[in-house]
Fold this sequence. Notes:
single chain, alpha/beta, TIM Barrel, 8-stranded parallel beta sheet, 6-stranded mixed beta sheet, 22 helices, globular, disordered C terminus
Amino acid sequence: MTDFELVERDGLARLGRLATPHGPIETPALLPVVHPDPARQAASPRWMRETFGLGAVITSAYITWRSPPLQAIARERGIHGLLDFDGPIMTDSGAFQQHAYGSVEITPQESLDFQEAIGSDIATVLDVFTEPEAPREQAAEGLELTLERARAARAGRKGLLAVPVQGGAHPELRARSAEAASRIGDVLAVGGVVPLLEQYRFVELVQAVAAARPHLAPDRAVHLFGAGHPMTFALGALLGVDLFDSSAYIKFARRGALLLADGTVPLTGVRERICECALCRERPLTDLGELSAGDREVHLARHNLLTSAEEMARVRQAIRDGTLWELVERRATAHPALRAALRSLLATPELFLPTEPDRRRAFREVSAESLLRPSVIGFRRRVEEYRARRTTARLLPAVPLRPEYLSWIPREDREGRPLEWVARTPMGEVPVELLETYPVGPFLGVTEFESPRRAFPVAALRALLEADPSLGTDRGSRWQADWDRVQIRALLEWRYGPEIAGRLEISRLKVGRSRRTQRVRWIESEGRPLWVVGNDGQAHPTYGGAEWLLASAPGLVPRVTVHPDAAEFVAAGRSLFSKFVVRADPALRVEMTAPLVDPSDRLLAVGRLLLAPNEMGRMSRGVAVRITGHARSPPDLELEPEPLPLDG
Length: 648
């Protein structure tokens, strides 16, 4: 079956590696559609790779089969010989031609046999293309026929097999198709969506992908047929699409149109040097009118391809940086249909929450939709649960609260009753002790730039508080020790819940603070660091902290259980691979730092989760947990701070 490895992620979006007989495909990947006849290619696959770094392509096995000269060369020299390309080649089956023209002259078995014979790296099942408007009965019939063909293809296919996921506009059929395809295929291709892409029906597109996505096996690459316009790449990747095929670069060139990451521009309207890419430095867009129609089309096609390759690189970088949501929001401004699609996605946060990272380095507000991201929805829900366990809180004055102000905020009123304080933030009312926690802690929003930044003096805060007769007289920095205990308790309860936090001897713990910002940076006991608090404001256990946890709350702490065959490697600091995960507690989340134990519950290490609990053990390749601390690692190494985001 498939050989797909997840390398890094940002929610559902994945940086991965799909192994093929002609080398790996680094995902998310753009697979340009190339004509099997070299004489009809605007750019050869070899040139695409050498010039733009596009290492894989897709071509039509059906068109090759229909042309006797092309078929003869492909049978003799293979599809790689026909295209003069030694990288991965995916072939389609003729399903699109069947959709466009009503029928094809090849049977599903003939299509598969031919793709096998010409050495396709990824062969595609000849599926039944289901129109978005198809009634449920017709869509269900096409789905069953597609799965029947896929099972027959699996029995005869030695290499990688792409199985289309059909079902039309019916979510339950998409889900059923996804589950069945996951048991058969190596690449799971969401099909029947080309009309939606062509007509900018992006809301229906994301609904089709979203209906299938939770039911697709996590160890398979996901392909989206026809997602060729670069302004849709970020949106597709956000939904967990790994492979994008594109013929848009040549189709739009034939219309005399430029593809840009934020829309489409007719060449006839270009009067300025709006692009300074390598191609435009050689020949500016304003000079293309001097070329013949054929040469102009070739130049435009190559320019569109360069734009597409650059956008896919931006998507990959955004996944690495944890900023894909920001990129999607910026791209959504390119067209109202894209913004409508984004709003549709935001209405279904449950799709993203199972793989939503526990932290990111920053949260930048881009648009009105920013505060509806799944990370915000999840945070608000947790804040509500946290506040429900506390007494009625007092709202702090609307001042730009900084960590050093805490020592001046009283912890009890004039009568000696404890006080709970909350602050009003763009993400709602948040308890003061949680203000450094992601996403509210690293939040960078519009409101703080709407008026000049200026320091709010401590004296002014004290005056506001002293004006409240119920608070009594000011006791100044005497409140610091109280707030230290509150923050320790809050961070551990936020991380592990009230039951586990209630078993920890908070009185034995102390906080270490940044000298510059007074933010909590670690929690220690008798000089031994037990938790590191990063820029995300959350407590991540060191190896010593994991020991303390497991001893204090045996059987309760969420953990990952490691297979005995890998236990000693993990204990020595080696990453834990997915196939060696015996069990992962469902309470764990992506990016959380958790204890790793062997089946006897012996602590081996602590590490950062790359996979969600429901993904661990289901992927045959790749790392599930990256080790951050183990018995032999010096504690100082576990205290290295993360780099600050560029915005500080």
